[in-house]
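Support reply, case 0932

Customer input (verbatim):
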Amino acid sequence: MSIIVSDISYHYQNQNTIFEHISFSVADNSTVSIIGDNGTGKSTLLRVIAGELRQSDGSIQFSSEPYYIPQNVVPTGKYVAQFLKVAEKLQALHAITGGSTSQSDYDTLSDDWDIESRCEKAFAKWGLSNIRLTDDFDNLSGGEKTKVFLAGLDIHNPKVILMDEPTNHLDYTAREILYDYIDSVKASIIIVSHDVSLLERIKTTMELTPKGLRIYGGDFYFYSEARSLEENSLQEKIHNEEKRLREVRKMAQEVKQRQEKRVGRGERNKSQIIRILRKTVSNRGENTDAKLKEKHEKIVQQSREKLTDLRSQKIGRVEMKLDVEDAGLHKGKRLISARGLNYEFSKGVPFWNNPLDFEIFSGERIHILGDNGSGKTTLINLITGKLEPASGEIERASFSYLYLDQEYREVNVDMTVLGLANRYNVSNLPEHEVKIRLNRALFPKDVWDKNCRVLSGGERMRLYLCCLMISNQIPDILILDEPTNNLDISSLRILTDTVRNYKGTLLVVSHDSYFVREIGAGRVMRL
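Our regenerated output:
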């Protein structure tokens, strides 16, 4: 086995338990994914395995030194070569080629004479030719930082790899390179991810929940099918137990009614029964009724406890239901017509080498595709009128639009959940109806006073969609700009279902091929 995790637990300093008694192993040249809702501790678990955090209990063993790709890196002041752990070797190589005969330089280099050329080749592969090994790592973009760590895979050729959300900031081209690497590499890999296109390539899926780690012996598709069967079985058990509880309560009520009738008859006939016999009959009836009552109460209690346990297993698996009405525009109306379109960030320097010609009609579902820096957001701003072209022309019909970015900034405000929902209540729905819709969006009463700024990416997405439903203002055009980057699997499913049901015009900027496929964005505008 390349990785053996034995009964590990992790507690914060205030003793809050993140996870307990986690055990699993990864065989040589095997791939494993860890999925789960936001807040369950996936990244924390991977940091513990990587040695970034110290577990409270248990042990972790590796067959070789693990190579860890984190999701986020705090500023450190280090330069790129230091993060790649090649700085000392490069210094030794340069010293030797400069004439040094120091044994320490030769020991440091350890015959790794092609280290510099490997770095150059890896940087070229991952689209980092503009990055130097001496550049300040903190000044790189999120995508560039991830690519630097990915380039380290080709530089070091590790046999044990740990990755935390490696595709979050990657463009389409880089994702495809990573997918090919996962398919072909001979290494043991643990990946925390919500990228379904990546998860479909992983041989074993593990789900982390508040109840622990569940291992599924297959890829994401196998996991989804197994989870669906589990949920259907659980729902059937809940239904059967609810039915049983109703029947037991009904029987208990019938016993009570019979007892009351018996008491009534006894009162009417007691004058006809001698006192001793009456007492005997009364005692016998009371004893029988008491035993039946006790029996039924015990059955009811057992059924309640079983039902509570079954329902607790369903926590976290509740699905959000949002009904999206049709947009107002008839299908096929021309909304945008562009000829020779271009923009200039520097005067006299066109942004696109080839000016853009395109038309957009109502009802279309369009995928705007391009690598980072290709001008996807610029194009969106030209379409919506936030920017005007430097050359060419663009004609816009009258339409309404809603723009959702990956941070859901419209929800990142200093207001409570309920307060924001009420702000969007422009149609003056009754207060109880607003609260009902919040509940449907998985915001129960105990989170209505929660500040929007502390919401997770998935919570912001759900709240924004809920506010859209409350306002009852369905846009003619829905624009999504990398909407899946910060979503867990459950939130991704909610967004996918909602967008799939939207009947207006859709423009989506995304590198997530699974999401694009699922929402039916068939037409591609490539930049």
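We compared this against your earlier run and they match. Two observations from our side: The mean pLDDT is 85. Residues 220-269 form the longest helix (50 residues). Please reopen the case if you see a mismatch on your end.
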